[in-house]
Input
Amino acid sequence: MPEDFVFGSATSAYQIEGAAALDGKGESIWDRFTRKPGAIADGSNGDMACDHYHLYPRDIALMKEMGLSAYRFSLSWPRLLPEGSGRVNAAGADFYHRLIDALLKAGIEPFLTLYHWDLPQRLQDKGGWYNRDTAMRFADYAAEAAQLFGDRVKKWTTLNEPWTFCWWGHATGEDAPGLKDGVKGGVISSHHALLAHGLAVPLIRSEARGAEVGITLDVNVTEPATDRAEDIEAARRFDGAQNRWYLDAIFRGAYPEDMLDLYNPRLLPDIRPGDLAAISAPIDFLGINNYRRSVIRAGAELAPLSYERVSPEGSDYSALGWEIWPQAIEDILVHVHETYRPARIYVTENGMATAPEVPDARGRIEDVERVSYYVGYLEKVASAARRGVPVKGYFAWTLMDNFEWALGYTAPFGLVHVDFKTQERRLKWSGEVYGRIAREAVER
Ligand code: FCB
Output
């Protein structure tokens, strides 16, 4: 890897912090959604999660032990602003001050994400991402956070994966707030989320001197399952909804014409003059989350996108049924670089779920599959770097087993095993290997 490459791990607030109702934290849509019967596979929630709110020094010590040089985490918006805007919760601010200071002391660079899906419930009560005003509230929150932490945090990400939280939260409903409004829900929430991002960028820059500001998208190369015209068309629509809608808006200041035509007029959001100019505010880096490729054929999902995801025969799959296809990460890095030319790219998430794991007789977790996943994908990231992609870092998803959204605690992705009864942490074999790569794979 190039000289200035950073190796880190990633987490998000709701998935690890716990302390859901402690020290003045406000309710988030995930606190609410997890109470809905049947919403979460194992009926669990993030009330306690990894209790990172109290155990963060232990977690930082683990990162240091692995030799990681960066840590991507998110703020809980309702921990900082319990009502979503206005009053700052001093105890919440204090927690993040302590976390950031401890990271810096350990020589680990903080990469801060403002929104990793836990919208304040108070804003959801006013329409959430359907309400244009949420974009303004996000901009205020971003400015407040940048004022509080911008002296020490120099890498800022506005949103994590707008495609996922907009579409899974508002179109299909398997994530909070659980709305099943189809394509219209996905498109309207996406427009307001992108507007939130665009309004926040200049505010973060002016409050956090010298900071780099970006956004994380979950983009996937999309391949038609066959060369039939209808499958090629379906793959193009899917690529338009998941990838180009966000990339074109951010890097070109325009939504893709074919998607505007497809949504027109019934499914189009209220796009006002100036919105796309705000959304395309120049950014310093693009974060890419990638796990797999998308192989698509014509089908019945989300008309008029009308697609179906295909699991190609002969491939290996993770415990979640996600195809293990390392070439996907090189392909998407090269594609985004050649098409949109972001100044810098970070792989902000990549990793693999297994079935729940238990330590063996020697107390070890020898997660061979996860080790080979990381080695395979990292080789392809290195190959993209050699092909001229300005990829500056890689964050393993995730530091430790945690609350995996609608899957609860059934899908561990961690480099570190967590015993959720005792909160005991144990480095897995993948954590040892990843740490060794982090320490040795950079040319110095
Ligand atoms: C991503 C999310 C992250 C985690 C991984 C497995 O979509 O950003 O929080 O759920 O998937």
User: Anything to note?
Assistant: The first helix runs from residue 13 to 16. The two ends are 9 Å apart (CA to CA). The chain has a mean pLDDT of 98.
